[in-house]
Each structure stands twice: as C-alpha cells, then as structure tokens.
Design a protein that fits this description.
7-stranded parallel beta sheet; two-stranded parallel ribbon; alpha/beta; Rossmann fold; single chain; 12 helices; 347 residues; 40% helix
Length: 347
C-alpha cells in the first residue's frame, strides 16, 4: 500500500483479519511455489495469524497446496481459528522423534517452536526445546527449505547510538534462553552445511500486536497508573502483519550455508517518549522508574531486510495509535508480557 490509513477494528476477529491479510507479493509467491507449507509450533502468539495469512494467500493464489499447522494445541481456541481459516491442524509433541518423523512431507517449513518464558527453574526443558527439537526437525526436513525463527537476544547489548547489531556481528548470548536460542541456530546451520538444506534464520525483535508486545506493555502501565521501567530505555519493534509477510517471503533467501536475517522495524524507539505519547493519547500522565542515560539494549539493524522486502507497511506512529485505541476501547490482552526490560538474560 502506498499510503497507510489507520484501520478501525474493535474485535479480535477484525484485528486478526487485518493482520493476516496477505499482500500481493505473498499471493504471487504461493502461486509460484504451489507445494505444501508446514508450520511447526503454530499455536504460539505469532503462529496463528501466520497460518491464517498462509491459508488466505493459498486460496487467493488458487492453488491446492496444503497449509499444515503443528502444535500441541494447549489452547483449543487457536485450533478452531486455524481450521476455520483452512489450515490442517495436527497435534504433535515435537520432542517425540518418531512423531516428528511421521509428519507430512512439505517442501517449505516454518519452524516457530521454542521456549523462552519459564526458563528459570526448568533450564533443561528450554535447552531440549531449543536445540533437540531443531535437530529432529532438520533431520526430518533435510530436503526442504526451512525458515527458522530466532531472536535478537543472541546479540550483545548495544547502545542506542550504535545503529543496532547487524547480521555480521558475532553473537554474544546472555543467559540460558539466549544461549539455547543460539544453539537452535547452530543446529540448523549444521544441517544446512552437512545436508545442503536451504535455511533462513530470522532474528526477530519485537512483533507488535495490540494484545501483547512492547507497546502493549508500556500502554497498559500508563493506563493503569503503574511506573514504566526505564532499565532498558530503547527498543525496536515491527507490526506483526509485516512479520508474517516477511516470514512467508523469506523462503526466497533460504540458502546453504544458512542465511541470517534481522527482522524488526527501522526506528530505535525511546521508552520514555513512547510512554509520554501514550499518556497524551490516553489522558494519563506516565510515571517512570530506573534508567541510565545511554543505557544498552537489544537493538537490531534490519537494513538488509528492507533492501529485500521494502520498508514495513505499518509505521511506528500507526502502531502507537492503534495500541492506544485498543487499550482505550477495552481490548483484550494475551497476558504474555515481553519482559523487554530484562538485562540479565533471566526469563
């Protein structure tokens, strides 16, 4: 879209419909690549709308490809939404190697499974989910193209004046979650080199959906009169609909050796200014605690993704306004705080 207009939605159904609308480029990609697509770990925050966009793109392209979603589906509502959209849903414990081996063939695989929150106290489960499962999946789908989700947390903390970490910067993972996420990358990189599997690794931070995300966390605190933590004073973010589009287009750059791509928006966003803007929009004066001028944060340089796919369609100002409208209208929350202000790697 050449110009972006603020959409009006008051329900989760309309929100998800807007978020999962495929772009012409995604539809054309499904027309060109008509084989099956399987999304592993589809039941999470991003996966449901990704499955919906993929099914809508498949239908718009007029192909007969299967869009298959794999999860334990602990939330039955997620499965219902996906099946209504035309996604085939399969229950599977991805830590069961035999179950993974029995999954359907698909030339395109999106890997979204993993564990972050709840790592403290169950570090061994986090490592199993983030390194053992990728080994099972990479072995099963060695002949497919794989787009694997990772995180900007594999980089070192940087200052807001740095421009953010680029794909060529060496990782410096802090804590069990980030270290195991880097382990996930290394497993896919190994299979990419050893088996010739085409892989694209997406280092994402942070996807924005009015029901959760960094903007949601800040806006909720402002609306509730709670202090906004300035332990981390800046962040990156990107509209979730743009994340979905870029995920489905990333098969274009999957390669052997694996191709690494940062996925976020173009701005380094100050927490204080964002809270103040929410205060203006919501009619509440924000309160703050902590903060060190020029403090470090997880910040990524996503210039390469912009060269490949263009700039995100939804601008930061639009995301902030949508978030404020969602909060003001009593919109729901997924109850999953990002903990973006965490600096010790403990989740």
């Amino acid at each position: 879209m050449d110009t972006w207009k603020l959409p009006a939605f008051k329900t989760e159904e309309k929100l998800e419909s807007f978020m999962s609308e495929p772009t012409p480029r995604v539809v054309e990609d499904f027309r060109t690549n008509s084989g099956n697509l399987i999304i592993l770990g589809i039941g999470g925050k991003i996966g449901v709308t990704l499955g919906m966009m993929a099914a809508r793109a498949r239908d718009a392209a007029g192909t007969r490809a299967r869009v298959i979603g794999v999860s334990r589906f602990s939330d039955p509502a997620a499965r219902t939404k996906l099946e209504k959209a035309g996604v085939e849903c399969l229950e599977c414990d991805l830590l069961d190697r035999e179950a993974v081996d029995s999954l359907p063939d698909a030339p395109r695989v999106v890997f979204m499974a993993g564990k972050k929150f709840g790592t403290s106290g169950s570090e061994e489960t986090t490592w199993a989910m983030n390194t053992v499962v990728p080994a099972y999946v990479a072995g099963r789908y060695r002949a497919s193209a794989i787009v694997a989700y990772s995180t900007g947390c594999v980089y070192d903390f940087v200052t807001p004046y740095s421009g953010g970490s680029s794909e060529s910067d060496p990782p410096k993972a802090v804590g069990d979650y980030a270290q195991s996420a880097l382990g996930r990358e290394r497993v896919f990189q190994h299979f990419s080199r050893a088996e010739g599997t085409r892989v694209c690794i997406l280092r994402l931070n942070y996807a924005i959906d009015p029901r959760y995300g960094v903007l949601h966390d800040i806006a909720r605190k402002v609306a509730a009169g709670e202090p906004v933590d300035l332990s981390v004073e800046n962040f990156n973010c990107i509209w979730q609909g743009d994340v979905l589009e870029r995920t489905l287009l990333s098969f274009e750059v999957a390669a052997s050796p694996a191709f690494v791509l940062n996925l976020t928006g173009p701005e380094t966003v100050p927490v204080r200014r964002t809270a103040e803007e929410f205060g203006r929009l919501l009619g509440k004066a924000p309160f703050f605690r902590g903060g060190v001028e020029g403090g470090r944060a997880y910040l990524n340089d996503a210039a390469l993704s912009f060269r490949l796919f263009g700039y995100p369609r939804v601008p930061l100002a639009g995301m902030i306004r949508m978030q404020a409208d969602w909060i003001a209208s009593g919109g729901g929350s997924l109850g999953k705080p990002t903990h973006f202000e965490t600096t010790d790697g403990t989740y």
